[in-house]
Design brief:
It is a single chain. The strands form three sheets. The chain has a seven-stranded mixed sheet. It has seven helices and 15 strands. It is globular and about 50 Å long. It has helices at 41-51, 65-68, 71-76, 87-92, 179-182, 187-198, 217-231, and strands at 2-6, 10-15, 19-26, 29-33, 55-59, 82-86, 121-123, 128-129, 132-136, 145-149, 154-156, 161-162, 168-169, 204-206, 213-214. The chain is of the alpha/beta class. It is 24% helix and 26% strand. Strand 3 and strand 4 (29-33) form a beta hairpin. The protein has a single domain (2-231), classed as 4-Layer Sandwich (Metallo-beta-lactamase, Chain A). The longest helix is centred in the C-terminal third of the chain and has 15 residues, at 217-231.
Amino acid sequence: MKITRFGENLWQLTRMGMFNCYLVCEADGLTLIDTGMSGSGKGILQAAQGIGWPITRVTLTHAHGDHAGSLDEVSTQLPGVEVALAARTAVFLQGQRAFEPGEPQAKLRGSFVNRSTQATRTLQAGDRLGSLWVVAAPGHTPDQIAFYDERDGTLIAGDVFQTQGGTAVAGVVRWSFPFPAMATWHLPTALETAVALRALNSTRLAVGHGRVLEDPLPAMIAAIRLAEAKVNGQAQVA
């Protein structure tokens, strides 16, 4: 597992060159955001050991298997760790994936997984998790959330955007890495979320697939424009 540090507080952990999770430094230890696909637990724990801080809390952006796959593996190795999940993600991980009133009735896509780990805390948009603000981020999945670190403007966006194969909004295919688009539930909702996250004016963008972007706003804006054109039927995918 490749470990790359960004700024004072963020480490990107990358498996197979394209699947990311993140460790965020806090005063009391590390927050793990996403657990990668199944079998990633050993690498995650070794990364934290190398950094020299304990993992004190675990959270997820959403319940797809490449983000939640090693949740049980990690949590069982960390007795007493705080497991903070979006309320919707906690339900999805138990296999209950009904739509809420008013949601688009589009087909759920991607590799949702069931896991036995129970949340010790449920999160809603606007909550704070250490130094991170929880931001609603539906579209790729109904349950997705993102995290904004107000200390340095880092946005950890799950699959709202990808940078693997080129920066794109979830649901817009990049043929060199089409999988996030193929696993996206509802592109118009994903576009609304991308616009909302762009308004945070983040200084760093960290995503589930691809490299971390410094000064990401131009790339985010270009990706949003392409998604708008696609939603409006005006452009072929790139």
